[in-house]
Specification:
The structure is a single chain. By secondary structure, the protein is an all-alpha fold. It has one domain: 23S rRNA-intervening sequence (de novo design (two linked rop proteins)), CATH 1.20.1440.60. Helix content is about 80%, strand content about 0%. Helix 1 runs antiparallel to helix 2. The protein is elongated and about 45 Å long.
Length: about 80
Protein backbone atom coordinates (compact mmCIF):
# COMPACT_ATOMS: atom_id res chain seq x y z
CA UNK A 1 0.00 0.00 0.00
CA UNK A 2 1.38 3.37 -0.99
CA UNK A 3 1.51 5.87 1.87
CA UNK A 4 0.59 8.83 -0.30
CA UNK A 5 -2.65 7.38 -1.69
CA UNK A 6 -5.25 8.86 0.65
CA UNK A 7 -8.18 6.88 -0.80
CA UNK A 8 -6.32 3.63 -0.44
CA UNK A 9 -5.35 4.43 3.14
CA UNK A 10 -8.78 5.65 4.20
CA UNK A 11 -10.62 2.73 2.61
CA UNK A 12 -8.31 0.29 4.42
CA UNK A 13 -8.81 2.05 7.75
CA UNK A 14 -12.56 2.10 7.14
CA UNK A 15 -12.54 -1.66 6.50
CA UNK A 16 -10.71 -2.26 9.78
CA UNK A 17 -13.28 -0.17 11.66
CA UNK A 18 -16.14 -2.00 9.94
CA UNK A 19 -14.69 -5.34 11.00
CA UNK A 20 -14.51 -4.13 14.60
CA UNK A 21 -18.10 -2.87 14.38
CA UNK A 22 -19.21 -6.20 12.91
CA UNK A 23 -17.62 -8.08 15.79
CA UNK A 24 -19.35 -5.80 18.29
CA UNK A 25 -22.75 -6.06 16.62
CA UNK A 26 -22.66 -9.81 16.18
CA UNK A 27 -21.10 -10.75 19.53
CA UNK A 28 -22.47 -8.12 21.90
CA UNK A 29 -25.77 -7.13 20.30
CA UNK A 30 -26.56 -10.46 18.63
CA UNK A 31 -27.39 -8.65 15.39
CA UNK A 32 -26.44 -10.83 12.44
CA UNK A 33 -28.25 -9.78 9.25
CA UNK A 34 -27.51 -6.06 9.09
CA UNK A 35 -24.01 -6.50 10.51
CA UNK A 36 -23.11 -9.10 7.88
CA UNK A 37 -24.34 -6.88 5.04
CA UNK A 38 -22.39 -3.93 6.42
CA UNK A 39 -19.30 -6.13 6.72
CA UNK A 40 -19.58 -7.13 3.07
CA UNK A 41 -20.15 -3.66 1.65
CA UNK A 42 -17.74 -1.90 4.02
CA UNK A 43 -14.79 -4.17 3.30
CA UNK A 44 -15.56 -4.33 -0.41
CA UNK A 45 -14.77 -0.63 -0.86
CA UNK A 46 -11.05 -1.05 -0.26
CA UNK A 47 -10.90 -4.30 -2.22
CA UNK A 48 -12.39 -2.62 -5.27
CA UNK A 49 -10.05 0.35 -4.92
CA UNK A 50 -7.13 -2.06 -4.88
CA UNK A 51 -8.49 -3.69 -8.02
CA UNK A 52 -8.90 -0.27 -9.64
CA UNK A 53 -5.29 0.64 -8.88
CA UNK A 54 -4.19 -2.57 -10.59
CA UNK A 55 -6.59 -2.07 -13.49
CA UNK A 56 -5.49 -3.11 -16.95
CA UNK A 57 -6.92 -0.07 -18.66
CA UNK A 58 -8.44 3.31 -17.92
CA UNK A 59 -11.88 1.83 -18.51
CA UNK A 60 -11.17 -1.02 -16.08
CA UNK A 61 -9.91 1.51 -13.50
CA UNK A 62 -13.11 3.57 -13.68
CA UNK A 63 -15.34 0.48 -13.63
CA UNK A 64 -13.75 -0.77 -10.38
CA UNK A 65 -13.78 2.70 -8.86
CA UNK A 66 -17.48 2.98 -9.66
CA UNK A 67 -18.13 -0.31 -7.87
CA UNK A 68 -16.21 0.99 -4.84
CA UNK A 69 -18.38 4.12 -4.89
CA UNK A 70 -21.56 2.01 -4.96
CA UNK A 71 -20.31 -0.08 -2.04
CA UNK A 72 -19.56 3.12 -0.11
CA UNK A 73 -23.11 4.33 -0.71
CA UNK A 74 -24.50 1.01 0.49
CA UNK A 75 -22.33 1.13 3.61
CA UNK A 76 -23.57 4.63 4.29
CA UNK A 77 -27.13 3.37 3.96
CA UNK A 78 -26.60 0.61 6.54
CA UNK A 79 -24.85 2.94 8.99
CA UNK A 80 -27.17 5.95 8.75
CA UNK A 81 -30.59 4.43 8.19
Amino acid sequence: MKKDNIIQTKSYNFAVRIIKLYKHLSQEKKEFVLSKQLLRSGTSIGANIEEAIGGQSRKDFFAKLTIAYKEARESHYWIVY
